[in-house]
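Session log. Operator J.P. requested a structure for one protein chain; no other inputs attached. Running the standard single-chain path with token output.
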Amino acid sequence: MTKPFAITLDIGSSLANHTGSWRTEKPLYVDLLPPCNQACPAGENIQQWLFHAEEGAYEAAWRQLTQDNPFPAIMGRVCYHPCQTSCNRAEVDEAVGINAVERFLGDEALAKGWAFEPPAEATLSGKRVLVVGAGPSGLSAAYHLRRLGHEVTVRDAGPMAGGMMRFGIPSYRLPRTILDAEVTRITDLGVTLELNTKVSDLEGALAEGFDAVFLAVGAHIGKRAYIPAGESAKILDAVNYLHDVETDDEKPMLGRRVVVYGGGNTAIDAARTAKRLGAEEAIIVYRRNRDKMPAHDFEVEEALEEGILLKWLSTIKHVDEGKMLVEKMALDETGFPQPTGEFEELEADSLILALGQEADLSLLDGVDGITVSDGVVAVDGSMMTGRPGIFAGGDMVPAERTVTVAVGHGKKAARNIDAYLRGTAYAPPAKRPVATFEKLTTWYYADAPHQHREHLEGARRASTFDEVVKGLDEQTAQFEARRCMSCGNCFACDNCFGVCPDNAVKKTGIGKGYAIDYDYCKGCGLCVAECPCGSITMVPED
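Structure written below.
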């Protein structure tokens, strides 16, 4: 009996009809690059360690995280979290608190005593690498190089490790117990740390038999500006001032009223520190307005909560004992400040200059092949200078000067140094397409607002160096991790399996995802339309 096409199938006989022959397009499972991963300067696989964290597998999450970054407890406090700025969840309610979960994992690791696994015997190379500078970039490189099987010696001119993490970031943002613990975990891995050992002769150091060198000299020299001043004027630079606060038993005597000149995060730190040292009034003078201020908004807000005053569109013209002359500025059509000819006088006992920082590159004097321009060292895509075997990173190369960027430089340099020592070339994995917001089906995700971290009361914290920002407890950290939408990567929600009208989607086992039986898939695209995380796409039929 001949039946019309529409009723050719008897009940239960769909598998006898290979509907895949109808297809012009077919669905394909893909692994896209989460935007948080893309934005992380340290190159962390954020989505993967969040997945472990939301399952309560905190050690697995920490070990995944530390494959790329050895400082989760530090970074959970000082990183400016560009990952959160890129988070797709911000288009739904609020960005995932990635930084807060990272801090929780870092603190959990310290509390539980988790240690890094030593390099496998088979990976040991017998090669020796010198790292100059025990800041974030140098320590990151040392950590990765050691895990790759090399002998690593870190030399630093200072009395303590940490670089600008110690001497540029006040303890109310980064407690020194946290810093020391994460540095110790690197030395416990087998990294040799030599403090109070300034490398002033690079050629001499090379003659000691090192097979490669990584230069990670931080920007420890404060920039100066010519400001006419009387003989009794008290003027300090922010870098030395913050260094003295960290190292000297006798803290700097600033007086009752302190002015800080500058608009970056260092200026904010200098003013907040001055209040904690006893200044009744701390004023930040900046020649542009707040919109043009390079300091991060949350840093400015925390300063305002502590009673720090900000004077916009102003520049200092003269300093004398107890007072200074300030000229009002106005922004031109390009946003550049121009003098107005209007002046006022400020009372001030001391002036702190926070106008930027430079690296001491004197160790490069007489070293052939290394190019220095505008105060930074030229490097190629592998972080190597013009001198074979000498690499550089952190504040001494052209890049944004943050702890996270420096950590990323250390990792990148280590991988390329490893390849150089083994006579190969490091090939980074190919970049996957980014899982942009329009690829997601967001109505599947319930509203779940961001869990905000508690802060020490403003009035109380202005007189103490106690940590200002508190961490999350386990419950809130796990909740925050579960807010991740797994952008671009399947999390086995079964939507594709449930909506397929042809039963063409097959489960392949726990943790193994799904497969599509193209004999029966007719390319309707329902699985693509209903995938929450955008991990299925339609491609033309072969």
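Operator note: Residues 161 and 184 are 10 Å apart (CA to CA).
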